[in-house]
Amino acid sequence: MQQSLTTRLNNRSRYGLAAVCVLGLGMAASAQVSSYADKQVGENRGDELPKVLKAVGVAQHLNGQLPLNAAFVDETGTPVTLGTYFNGKKPALLSLVYFDCPMLCSEEMDGITSALEMVKMNPGKDFDVVIISIDPADTPAKAAAKKAFYLKRYGRPETAAGWHYLTGQAPAIDAVTNAVGFGYVRVPGPDGNLTQFAHASSLEIVTPQGKLAQYYLGVEYSPKDMMLGLHEASEYKIGNVVANILTYCYHYDPETNKHSIVVVRVVQMGGMVTVAGLGGFIFLMFRRDMRLGRDHDIKPMDDDTSGAQG
User: Does the predicted TM-score (pTM) go above 0.70?
Assistant: First the structure.
């Protein structure tokens, strides 16, 4: 009986400790997110998109043809056309970012690299990775720095020939973004100059002939879906439209000339759902433990009583 009571107390202590840990993690996560948001310029004003973001989004042009004659410069400073990477041999991952982006673009490239680490296919051999800057002011030197950083993080230096970081001028950039359906607008940076861009985050899979086969939205990508998408694109198969849930780079207010990250709200909401789910699970387990403990107490008493009467 004493052992049973000790066991129940230990179990309850364990659940209680777990509950404290969950609450502590929840408060810590909330504090981190709040601290992160506090560092941003400006503040969100309601859930309605500002007027400047009306032109920002991703229209999924499945089976649309990329402009293969669009002229760019690669990270080595060599002039190339987009058709260089879509010559009928292998599919490609296409991402539209800009290299001085202080927020979402790095998250997107982090997500691509993390997913590719778990994909059993090799850039350069099985597919290409084509990163195009939407900023005409970006340079091959910046492109080279980004490639070096993410290639090192990827950890397979032998795949360097499969990573392509391109810069170009407005006509070529516009031709690609229009074909992809990638809407973006210039917005002021902290200095008030139009040096930053409001845009959404998306990753496209393109067939070897340069046709848009699949869109992935957001900044985190499933390695399984990515590998399947590349395999199907290599066979010239076109995927389906995905749910258009966008992650915007900026929540911009032209009246106050301020902007902040919308993704912070997503992180906060995700943290709240996680904490609520774990808290509910722990509560149910705690109740079950108490019920089992009561049943265990009653049965020995019945046995002792019957034994005494006998």
Answer: no
